[in-house]
Amino acid sequence: MANKSCGARATYPFGMVRSHLTLAALATSAVAELDVAAAASFGSGGASDFDSAIITGRDGRHWIIRVPCTEQAEAQQSADLVALRALSAGVRTRLPFAVSTHVGQTPIDGTRAVVYEFVYGSKVGLAAFDGGAQGLAASVGRAIAAIHNLPTSFVADAGLPNLSPVECLRASLSIMDRAAATGLVPAALLGRWERATEESKLWQFQPTVINGDLSAESFLSANGAVTGVLGWQELRVGDPARDLAWLLGARADVVSDSAFDAYAAVRGGHTDRQVRQRATLYAELEIAKWLLHGTETRSTETVDDAVEMLTNLVDNVRNDVMNPIGTQTMPTMAVDEVEAYLDRAERAI
What does pTM read for this prediction? Predict the structure, then answer.
């Protein structure tokens, strides 16, 4: 399970940055049978939501220990643990990739250190798709389809959210209404989004199990194939299009096409014909959410950035007036724009 290590953070309520040696000691407290042979900081350095270290046992196995740095990270970790417990051994046998397992935890400074089995693979990242990584894109499409093919009963049994199409539509309308209230969303976009929400066929879909928070960074890969999926804190039953929206950030159409084609092949007759169109709407509404984040945090920089992105989006859709949401639509943001957005969002959290 990959993660960055923590740097300075003003909002961190739990203590100072912890070294990999401290984290190794916590790991042995969390997992009684763990015999540590080596430990190293895990991540790319800089500020992040977790202190993390990779632990090597004397048996050669690897583990990850994570300690949340903020209250928000602590809540995320708690939700992720609920989801990992819901993903039973039987459910996991249906997935063509690995999902980490929680193996122990111990209290520390008002929060808790959690130890997980290590999932092998390299972070994918949106840049991996630049230049036409069709094989990897197809593997990602198949991985997402496998999640959506899982039985919904285990999600209900775990008490996790179960959203109907109407509830998914209402959530989108709420974002639109709040964004419109800022007075900063171009009328052309509001009209485009309103027409999409009013098209009844767009919202006639069968809810599926979804990860709920997928991005390129969610995937681990090796030899051009997905080996693991990280971050399950938003696991629920909902709109499958939500897990596919980020794919529309791939610069080359052939990449997103490969992913969607592979997804449809695995889903077979269960794929609804409008899934890509709703994914387009969700991708565009991400910019509206970024605008709302800026207004709620009173960040002029974030608001200005979101307004610029909305302006660029208007230019794109004006050049594509024959393809409103509800028919075949073009990708809304280039890969470099999506990467920049995700980087700014991560720094703002």
Answer: 0.84
